[in-house]
Each structure stands twice: as C-alpha cells, then as structure tokens.
Amino acid sequence: MSEFFKTFKFKLIVCILALLAGFMLCSALSDGTPFSGTEFVNRITNPVKEYASSASGFVGEKLDALVNASEYKDENEKLRTEIAKLRQDLTDYENKKNELDELQKFIGIKEEHEDVVLSNPCTVISRTANDPYASFVIDRGSEDDISLYDPVVTSEGIVGIITEVAETYSTVETVLSPDIAIGAICRQTNDTGIVQGNIKYARDGKCEMIYIDRENRLEEGSIITTSGASGRFPKDFLIGSVEYTEADESGLSSYAVIKPYVDIQKVSSVMVITAFNGQEAGNAD
Fold it and tell me: In angstroms, rounded to a whole number, what is the distance separating the alpha carbons of residues 22 and 25?
C-alpha cells in the first residue's frame, strides 16, 4: 500500500483534489455558495468558448469580405456613379434656376425699351488682372450674334461696351474706362454732358460726367441716363446718380462725379444689346 502513495498516479490524484478544493474554497469565500465540479469545469471552459466564438465571427466576416469583394466593389462603383449623376443634376438645376432668375430681371428692359434686341444672359467668366477700370470677359461671343461695340447692360443700367469678340467669348470695357464716352442727360434738369471713366475715380467704382454747362442745375442724387446722341448706346438707359459737381480747371464748364447704378466691380451676369434703333447711324460715325 505504501508503494501506491509513492506512485505518479497518486500524486496526480492529490493535485486534482487540491485544485478542486481550492476552487471550492474560493467560491465559498466570495459569495458563500459552493459550486459543483460541473460548475468548476464551466468556469474554466466558458472563457475559451467565448474566445472561440469571437474568433469564429471575426474569421467569418473576413472570409465574407474576401469572397464577395468583387461584388462589393461593383456596388460601390455603382453608388459613386449615381452620386456623381445626382451632383451633376443638381448643378444643372442651379444653372437653369440662375438663368431663369436673370431672365426675369431683364424682362423690364424689354418692357421699357421695345426697340432693343438682347442676347441671352451672359456670365462673367474672368476679370482682367490689375485693370483699374474693371474690364472682364463674358461667356458669349459671335456665335450669339454679339458684335464689336455692342452695349452691355443689366437690369440696373449700363455696364459698358464689347471691345473684343471671339466665337464663344467677348471682352467688356466698362463705364469706368476713359476709352468709353457716353452721351448723357439728366431728365430732371435737361443738363447734358459726356460720361467717361477717369483713373482718379475708377478705384472707387465711379466715373465722371464732363462738359456740363457751368450754370447747370444738377445736384446730389440727380439721375443720369443715356441721351442716345452718339448712336453707340440706346436712349434712356440708366447710368448712375450724381454725387457732387464742381467747375473744371478752365472754369468754362463743370463736371460731376457719377456713381453707376451697376456695381461694376462685382457684376456677375449681364446682357448684350445686339441691335437698337439708331445703332447703325452711331456705328457709321
């Protein structure tokens, strides 16, 4: 019998019993409730089961992604295409809406000036760098029946004239430029003169009206319109309002500083007058 206690089998049994007793004692100390051998085995194997389940789910997800990668790629590509189309549709809608808004603004021009022929709305696509007179380029040209020296307007008034024409774009010189001269009149007082640009006022978005009678009756706020005398611009289009008047250096006449009704330096959409009564006579001069 003594030989049995020395065998490896006995020692193994003792270790297992000691281990069981230790776990039972821990359980009793923790909540006062002993647990069976089955519970002991479960406590040992449950973490292993949980880890195995988690690993199985992870491996399953990776295998699914690997097996269906091509299908997922096709679906993503399809979604990207649909999103791009929706964005383009939204852009087209906004462009049409803006064009409609601009057309509605210019309806009044045709109502007040039945003789003029207007282009479709033109978008300002670039501005001339370092130009104090704020010239710019529009997105329409000879393909839209636009010609050299055609007047450029908005619903607020005169902007300038076309000074360069290509098939799909044109350059606009504005009323801030000294290269443009517009026959002008104040209908309230019948005082007349020539509106043109001057570097002295261009930076502030203003121009001047020169050759005004020294005994004029212009005052701050007087409305200046085109007189139609030169033939370059149709009659009775708004130009701007008088800020102040002064006698010129010669003392023989006066000049007035004019604030255009159109914000020349910020205008983004215009129309070109391609024909009006008296235009041919003006261009022949």
Answer: 5
Give the pLDDT mean for 136-164. Answer: 96
Joined tokens for residue 167: 């098939």
Model confidence, pTM: 0.65
Q: How far apart are CA 124 and CA 137, in angstroms?
A: 6
Structure token pair of residue 122: 């033109």
Q: pLDDT class for 268, splitting at 50, 70, 90?
A: very high
CATH fold, domain 117-284, is Thrombin, subunit H (2.40.10)
Q: How far apart are CA 7 and CA 86, in angstroms?
A: 82
pLDDT of residue 281: 47
Cα separation, 279 vs 235, whole angstroms = 10
Cβ pair 36, 20 in contact under 8 A: no
Burial 118-145 (b: 16+ CB within 10 A, else e): bbebbebeeeeeeeebbbbbbbbbeebe
Report the alpha-carbon distance of residue 152 to residue 159 in Å, rounded.
5
Tens-digit pLDDT profile for residues 191-241: 999 999 999 999 999 999 999 999 999 999 999 999 998 788 999 999 999
Instruction: Give CA–CA dist 176/262, Å, rounded.
Output: 11
